[in-house]
Write a structure and sequence with these properties.
Layout: H1 2-18, H2 32-63, H3 75-88, H4 90-103, H5 106-152, H6 157-170, H7 185-189, H8 222-243, H9 245-265
Helix pairs in contact: 2-3, 2-4, 2-8, 2-9, 3-5, 3-8, 4-5, 5-8, 5-9
């Protein structure tokens, strides 16, 4: 009888040894509660960073797109819109993250992680594209800007307004030089006007009929316009690449928390 009880005790002890102990929420250095606290802090930082990215993108669209119609490709506005989309994801993404942290719902955390990755791709992509285009924009404008000036001026209202605004703001005339207007479709329509009135030092009706240096600007707009676009692209590149670092931290911590919660539940 004693021998049988001894065997039963040995079997029970062996069975207990085979059962894995359930992990505690606060096991290891990176506990579930610690990771949740870190992600709550991250959400606040990410929300303000997203607002900053959104404001930079919106500022670019509202105040720096006056001359976009003169660019041969839509790369420049596309960069700004990518930043706006990335910044706009901040509020719903933070709400999703807070909901997932409160309920410890793995599906919410997984969606949160994927959207952080998407945000990183958008911001890094916008920043990288801005750096690339900042180098390429000079050659692009040198090849196409003069053609846009002499071909579309007075025929396309948007281009006409952009050219007039540029010549007035930058105090320049023509893409490369003032004499380029002699080859334009606009000049052929009224040969008495040598340059548009926006080339004049003192703008008034039909002042472009006289091309003396005391009356009009002689410098072309190419250099100033290129510098204007490049300066804006440097800002967009810095914001895009700089802010793309932030989602990486959230992505890492949310992945670790997902695994931790999965092990605790399982």
């Amino acid at each position: 009888m004693a021998e049988k009880k001894k065997k039963d005790s040995s079997a029970l002890l062996a069975k207990k040894k085979k059962v894995k102990p359930r992990k505690s929420r606060d096991a290891d250095c990176c506990s579930v509660n610690f990771l949740k606290c870190v992600l709550h802090i991250f959400n606040v930082i990410f929300l303000f960073a997203g607002a900053g990215v959104l404001l930079v993108g919106a500022w670019t669209v509202t105040s720096r797109h006056r001359f976009v119609s003169l660019l041969p490709t839509p790369t420049y506005p596309a960069i700004a819109y990518l930043l706006i989309i990335a910044g706009a994801l901040g509020v719903p993404l933070c709400a999703l993250g807070c909901c997932g942290l409160k309920t410890e719902n793995r599906t919410s955390l997984l969606c949160y992680t994927y959207f952080l990755l998407i945000t990183f791709i958008l911001e890094a992509g916008a920043g990288g594209l801005a750096y690339y285009y900042e180098v390429a924009v000079e050659d692009e404008l040198r090849a196409e800007l003069n053609t846009t000036f002499i071909t579309n001026y007075a025929l396309d209202t948007i281009v006409t307004n952009a050219v007039d605004s540029m010549q007035t703001e930058f105090k320049c005339c023509g893409a490369l030089r003032y004499s380029d207007w002699r080859r334009s479709a606009w000049h052929e329509h009224d040969p008495r006007l040598l340059v548009p009135d926006s080339c004049c030092r003192s703008v008034r009706a039909r002042c472009g009929a006289r091309d003396h240096p005391s009356n009009i600007y002689y410098d072309g707009c190419m250099l100033q316009f290129t510098n204007h676009i490049r300066d804006n692209l440097i800002i967009l590149a810095a914001v895009g690449v700089g802010m793309s670092v932030i989602p990486i931290f959230g992505f890492f911590f949310s992945c670790v928390l997902y695994v931790k919660i999965k092990h605790v539940i399982d």
